[in-house]
Specification:
Layout (H helix, E strand, L loop, with lengths): L2 E5 L3 E3 L4 E8 L6 E8 L6 E7 L4 E3 L7 E6 L4 E6 L8 E9 L5 E3 L3 E6 L1
Parallel strand pairs: 2-11
Antiparallel strand pairs: 1-3, 3-8, 4-5, 4-9, 5-6, 7-8, 9-10, 9-11
Length: 117
């Protein structure tokens, strides 16, 4: 059984930095992609950043230049380094893993990030 376990969500001041981590317990096939989505009350989850097992990454326009996604394939762990945080980054952040070309999609339980002004 595959589980995604997130950590790192906290309260931080605007301009600060934070690193989220998400570890996969179990195993998922390659090629795959892991990523982070954000969700605020009343809105759909939105992609923040994603990275494939081959190392290709993409970002939402709103976080380009501020956030960096990385992964450790040996540990099946994905990280999101969040710099220059803004109050509008406040959201629940969900880790996601997808086995490319299949219907297998996995979600973490979410971690709250709050950025105070």
């Amino acid at each position: 059984q595959v589980q995604l376990v997130e950590s790192g969500g906290v309260l931080v001041q605007a301009g600060g930095s934070l690193r989220l981590s998400c570890a996969v317990s179990g195993s998922i096939s390659s090629p795959n992609a892991m990523g982070w989505y954000s969700q605020t009350p009343g809105k759909q989850r939105e992609l923040v950043a994603a990275i494939t097992s081959g190392g290709s990454s993409n970002y939402a326009d709103s976080v380009k230049g501020r956030f960096t996604i990385s992964r450790d394939n040996a540990k099946l762990t994905v990280y999101l380094q969040m710099n220059s945080l803004k109050p509008e980054d406040t959201a629940v952040y969900y880790c996601n893993a997808v086995v490319l070309g299949t219907r297998y999609v996995y979600w973490g339980q979410g971690t709250q990030v709050t950025v105070s002004s």
